[in-house]
């Protein structure tokens, strides 16, 4: 299912038009909730809204159904599934077995697994992981200590959270090794405060954010990264979510908005993904050394490998490798140039100072 034009969806939200219910859904990143267009909840700031074509897409992005407008239809055969989802949301920090969940609603574990997955597009376990991941991100954005936030989200240990694939819902390793064969990747360019930027995304999230000297050179980089993928230039009508994503990131780079909470499609080795996921948890305005990052992911002797993983990062700013410095405090390397790294760090320090 494809989305409507963003302008049409935003107009429908402004009018709370019931005629659009079921045609699209919207999520609010600050609450982690997704709603019908007609929902009577307090309007969200435009930059905090994400659009989805269906319930499955919203759930896969980590949003939970609104209790007010109930975007998941609840006829009798779905009532037990919604009840299960609510129970998972309320107890995401607990160890929830499939057998115990099934017993609560009076069905067999196999039936619950099948019907829940058919209705929501994810298994009960995957749904719990998504809720935990969103709670972790919310805690970190609120300034919580990283370790405390991890345990508060219910992961139980540092290694468990960095080993999870809750955010990695995109291309399989096999598909990636084949150069993206069979994948469709939409892209668009924008002039930003840091120069030309190209953002590209699969249906699961942003897979590429690069800065360069010209749109042509950036497109060549994208083609070299995914030589067998179908690369399609985005228009707002065909890919409204990508258009709004690049706008949100552009506004962040201009210093006018916080870093947007966008879905990302991470591709790399298990070690690289572990490094990149940890970087996404580092608070804005904070910095750490390669050695400190290696210790944080429980690989204390891998500072050099951590530096290589940072250098291999394809999703600039959203995966903030610019927050990693040399052990002596020097800026170290940055694949998009030291001036851009310095500008990003200065912007984040200034924003942090204004908040304090």
Characterization of the model:
With 356 residues, the chain is of the alpha/beta class. The protein folds into 4 domains: 6-65, DNA Methylphosphotriester Repair Domain (3-Layer(aba) Sandwich); 76-163, Arc Repressor Mutant, subunit A, CATH 1.10.10.60; 173-253, Double Stranded RNA Binding Domain; 270-355, Winged helix-like DNA-binding domain superfamily/Winged helix DNA-binding domain (Arc Repressor Mutant, subunit A). 44% of the residues lie in helices and 13% in strands. The protein is built from 15 helices and 10 strands. The chain has helices at residues 6-15, 55-60, 76-90, 98-105, 109-120, 124-141, 146-152, 158-163, 173-177, 215-225, 240-253, 270-279, 290-296, 303-311, 338-355; strands spanning 25-28, 33-35, 49-52, 64-65, 184-192, 195-202, 205-211, 230-233, 288-289, 324-325. Strands 3-1-2-4 form a 4-stranded mixed β-sheet. A 4-stranded mixed β-sheet has the order 7-6-5-8, with helices on both faces. A two-stranded parallel ribbon has the order 9-10. Strand 5 (184-192) and strand 6 form a beta hairpin. Helix 4 packs across helix 5 (109-120). It is globular. The chain starts with 5 loop residues before the first helix and ends with a helix. Mean pLDDT is 79; it is low at 157-177.
